[in-house]
Amino acid sequence: MTKNIDWGSLGFGYITTDYRYVSEYKDGKWDNGILSTDSNVVLNESAGVLQYAQTCFEGLKAYRTEKGQVVCFRPDLNAKRMSDTAKRLEMPPFPEERFIDAVEKVVKANIEWVPPYGSGATLYIRPYMFGSNAVIGVKPATEYQFRIFVTPVGPYFKGGAKPITLRVPDFDRAAPRGTGHVKAGLNYAMSLHAIVDAHKQGYAENMYLDSATRTKVEETGGANIIFVTKDNEIVTPKSNSILPSITRRSLMYVAEHYLGLKATEREIKIEEIKDFKECALCGTAAVLSPVGKVVDHGNETTFPAGMEKMGEITQKLYDTLTGIQMGRIEAPEGWIKVIE
Ligand SMILES: *Cc1c(COP(=O)(O)O)cnc(C)c1O
User: What is the mean pLDDT of residues 19-47?
Assistant: First the structure.
């Protein structure tokens, strides 16, 4: 039985669901893990996560397909990325095959929370890990928790598929040099002020530039960026300080192999965005959200597709990607993990 929720009106928020997965690391090893009904975490006041922000996370989704199955999209890539992040933060990586197994267990345990096919909502899956024992000198914790909770979500940006406006902020994206590939709270805490400030000024998100030269497009707070050129080529920023988005990687593949479009990762100068036809944000949460306009200190670029609807190529990419995720279009080998 599916929970009695008005799925169509869900935004991107947190709802407490029935079960979460919890595994603890102590004496150099991860325990077997359990499913818990307790949504609270109790920690020592000097826990590594609280004092030195030793924590990281992942985000993926479970989808109800046209045929009624419940599937995940490329969870192996999230397992790998979380393990890379953990190593960079001196945390013990959670074994990748156990990550996938834990995702499967927690989604199965909360199967009634998976939104119905066609509702516009999906089940967001949030794996995370943190240092749990007391540390006061600056050093890694020796005990950790790996957890996964799930929560049903609707569209990330209010207004659904309507194009959004970005601004180029005076702030750098928080990622300190060399941590761009780390999916962790430290990169987000430092971006909160820029986001609140953008919202205050009426923008949906920030389009960050590279901090070294402030001439190249990087990404937004929680999503990568793609552009479409006038020749229908997909271009996306090449940078080692942006988060390697699984959605972006998948869209580049879809562009080339499903739509026959050229897809290129290269440096993109802020002054060339006026030459592009379309722009969109991509990520697990954002899916593919059209950008209608970018404001760079009074210099406005409105893409030809305008503020009312998605551009034509963005729409094709969106339809193909979500078609693969919802089982309407055949997926490349290994992209879909059937849960139930
Ligand atoms: C998670 C995230 C993305 C999107 O990555 P996906 O793997 O596609 O979900 C983009 N940028 C940042 C900073 C992120 O944290």
Answer: 98
